[in-house]
Amino acid sequence: xxxxxxxxxxxxxxxxxxxxxxxxxxxxxxxxxxxxxxxxxxxxxxxxxxxxxxxxxxxxxxxxxxxxxxxxxxxxxxxxxxxxxxxxxxxxxxxxxxxxxxxxxxxxxxxxxxxxxxxxxxxxxxxxxxxxxxxxxxxxxxxxxxxxxxxxxxxxxxxxxxxxxxxxxxxxxxxxxxxxxxxxxxxxxxxxxxxxxxxxxxxxxxxxxxxxxxxxxxxxxxxxxxxxxxxxxxxxxxxxxxxxxxxxxxxxxxxxxxxxxxxxxxxxxxxxxxxxxxxxxxxxxxxxxxxxxxxxxxxxxxxxxxxxxxxxxxxxxxxxxxxxxxxxxxxx
Length: 332
Known about the structure:
Largest sheet: 5 strands, mixed
Distance between the termini: 127 Å
Mean pLDDT: 78
Oligomer: single chain
């Protein structure tokens, strides 16, 4: 009896496929064994052993960055920089505050040495005349010395007590105000420095700290402190951030109309000279007890600048718009 068609059992078909692919299976087993020993691992990575037509999946290709990938990386870096830069600027500002207060601590030592040698009394301001008419002298055909004012003389009088001229400048304001031709070049901002001639167009001094002129040891004003012996010395300002070298503040003085407008020529409102927003709504100050701290801009009106300061506790002046958000310190 003939069979109309050939029939191969399923099991026989599987065995035939297995026999046909046996050599491939053995090759893979040997390759896996070789890789496990690591002998030809580097060659495999280089594709040397991947030439077999059954092992194309092991080939590696070197793929460069695409333009889109580079743009994405650049965008991520730009985003990170935009996040980090404000933080870095804040750290820089804090560092400048620390350096500024360190300078004022050095000035505390300088004033301490001077007052210890002069019976706990401050300078009168007239000492500079003896200094200027000493061995170096001051030629008659040159314009005065220290701009011809005893109130401007403290940097020269104390010069023998400090060695670093950089102590005269806050780190936020240290650009020299003089040009090469000897003329003043003021920027009139909170970052400005003042400048004075020791010898006109020959020797000058500049800085960005100003002294409370009420401390000078002269008898022309009853409000003067004259000596370091005083009550509440921690509220008596001695040296501060300032547009000018000195000032005579009064409690009724008006603040400057603009934040970045340096005023030093207004003889009726000397508080404007000390109203310097260099340190985030604050200024740095050295007090008569030789302590150093940050002072709020509006707090300047609550300090005891001279002996008869605001005895009636009068309210502070009307604040300009740029000071509206600053902290208030006046207590009725």
